[in-house]
Amino acid sequence: MQAWKAYQEKHKQRFLDELMELLKIPSVSADSTKQADMNRCAEAVKKALLDAGADKAEIYPTKGHPVVFAEKKADLVLRIDTALYMVRAEFLWKFLFSASFR
């Protein structure tokens, strides 16, 4: 956990800058005149996921809002004493990012 905190602190400004760039896109989904901006936002999210290490990311157009799906495949070698932690991490990853581990 300390390694993550150190990484987070070291890259904090970059994380904030990336978030601010995404928030600048006027993609208010309740406003139908912003469809082009919603698509631009979806493209930005797709790029961010690929830049972050996703194996693939795709945009699925819908009648309303575009959906971005990303996947990160990983081979996990687990020791018995860390298995529970890793299972929790996999669940959280799937829940937050719809990634699949194989």
What do these coordinates show?
This protein has 102 residues and is mainly alpha-helical. It has a domain at 2-71. It has 4 helices and 2 strands. The protein has helices at residues 2-10, 12-23, 35-51, 83-97; strands spanning 56-60, 67-71. The protein has a two-stranded antiparallel sheet. The model is unreliable at 80-84 and 98-102 (pLDDT under 50).
Q: What's the SSE blueprint?
A:
Layout: H1 2-10, H2 12-23, H3 35-51, E1 56-60, E2 67-71, H4 83-97
Antiparallel strand pairs: 1-2
Specify the structural class. Answer: mainly alpha
Q: Can you summarize the main beta sheet? A: 2 strands, antiparallel
The percent range for helix content is: 40-55%
- By DSSP, the count of extended strands is 2
Number of helices: 4
List segments where confidence is low: pLDDT < 50 over at least 5 consecutive residues. 80-84, 98-102
Q: State the order of secondary-structure elements, H for helix, E for strand.
A: HHHEEH
| Average pLDDT taken over every residue | 77
Query: Strands of the biggest beta sheet: in what spatial order?
Result: 1-2
Please summarize what this structure is:
The protein has 102 residues and is mainly alpha-helical. The chain has helices spanning 2-10, 12-23, 35-51, 83-97, and strands at residues 56-60, 67-71.
